[in-house]
Amino acid sequence: MFFNEKLKMLRKENNLTQEELAEKLCVSRQAITKWESGDGIPDIDNLKQISILFNTTIDELVKEDMNVTVPCEKYSYKEELDIDHTKHFDIHISKISELNIKPNNEEKVSIEILSDNEKINELVKVKFDDLYNRLDINIKSSLSDMIINLLIPEKYIDEIELNSKTRVLNINNLFLNKLEYDGELKYLNVFGSKGRIVLNTTKCDIEANYDKFDGVLEVNTINSKAHVYLPKDTKYQTIVKGIKNEFIDANPIEDAENIIELNGMNSKLIIIEK
Predict the structure, then answer these.
(1) Would 89 disulfide with which of 46, 68, 160, 259, CB 3.0-4.6 Å?
(2) Is this model's pTM higher than 0.85 or not?
(3) What letter does residue 243 receive in the DSSP assignment?
(4) To the nearest whole number, what is the mean pLDDT of the chain?
């Protein structure tokens, strides 16, 4: 039996829908669909969570499946900073593979950096500049394969400004007044979160996936395409600004609370409901 078949069988045996399993693993429903259809496999962290959830082992999950290669364990580096009140976060990160932003139940900012390079402690530099109502975070490294887990106490988030070159940005279970991203980005995944997200990704095609759309998405780009995946029957209105921009396959509802805005020049935003 292949991994995708085992995952589907275990989910059904435990009377879970794809949405419920996705919530337990803090991933999107689309990720579960992808794994169960055999179009992809979870990373090592998600394989661990699946094995714990279903009381099995990673070996049992993937054995007999010649198409599955278990990802290698990564080396890690961690920094933390205690905070006790609301702050504006200004975050600068060098080129990385993936950034995961999650809430922290503790009153501290926690940064965990993962890489295949065993010398990660020597090659990564994290700097905190803690002002009273503002926290600047700079993460520099020559390791472009890095995965960063950034945990922030939700009650202390004012706004987040983020500058990076990131392949994947995952926003997990956060209420955001505003998160503004500047730089290069390929995939945005928003899980169990709501609020205003602004993407300034000039000349950069992007794919945004929402498990539930609750808030505002602003896309500012030039000569690019953006694909936005929403759950079926999502209610939203569209706003077009700039020059020669257009929405494709959009079904907006006037005066809907949720808003998708396209700004910039000569760009298209395609909305796909699934």
Answers:
(1) 160
(2) no
(3) B
(4) 90
